[in-house]
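Letters spell out the chain; the tokens describe the backbone. To illustrate:

===
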Amino acid sequence: MSQVFDTKLLYEDYNTGQLALSYYRPVADIFGANKGSPPNLVADSMAALGEFVGMAVFIFLALSGVQAALEAQTGLPSDRGFTPDQIQSIAFSFGASVTVALFICGPISGGVLNPAILLSLVLTGNINWLRGILFFVAEMVGAILGAYFCNFVTAHELQGVNLLSPGFNYAQGFFAEVLLTCTLCLTVLFVIVDKSSLSDFAPFVVGTSIFICHLIGAPIDGTSVNPARSFAASLVAGKWANHWIFWFGPLIGSVFAVMIYLTCKILEAQSRSQILVQQADQMDVLDDKEANKKSGEAFNRNLRNEYGDQTYRNEDNTQNDTNYNSRDTDMYHSNSNTNPTST
């Protein structure tokens, strides 16, 4: 049996619920393990409506917090970049805002609130194509509405536009967006999609990840990791400098996250298959030992019976003589008890 499994991979087919044997685990099977609901216009539209509301709330709260942090008097020239207090305030604004928004729209749409994360969920089969399209439109419209609300309630120009900070070049901003978005998408895939022990605290997990990403990325370009957020702020403020970074960076980071996720899933399946093979081999060894023991005992009995093992026969004869003598003695005593006066 081990020779069969040496070259093939044993995995569980999530479509049939049975074990299957293949030279590799099909990617389609991994998609089956994370299969979302099939396209349904009514259900997907209702979920998209929840996504729209959640995105509007998220962007309004986050950009309003950024506005308050950047309008605060620092006493430093504007070309010196953000102060540590401003960076922490920006990070907290986005982390807390996405947590609140997820609690609002999570029961309705699942709370994606990010086209980059949406792309990773579509590529892994967790969201069907129809819901993906509706979610993208809802996220873009909701982000624009939230940015306009923020701009309406502020007395100055909207400050939450993603722009490269002085001293950073295109490559640094691009790779920062790729790496930070990849980290965020991996958090969603491994913690929430795979339903780990922390999945019940999904809003806090995502909020913490967003907080860390903004602590790192705010000094570089204000941190996007969300094309809808960047597009909405740029549209309202009319600032489009280096805007391509905030689309290509997050989307490419999302694709990298999917590649890492699928690779880990394949390796995990191989590890499980090796455990199954070892268990199967152990069971075969135990079965072989038990079968050899039983066949050996049967063979020895046949030899004694067919070829006249004297020891075995003498033991049988002795046992038979003992039985006959015991029977004769019993019969004698029985007769004696029946006729006590006979001689």
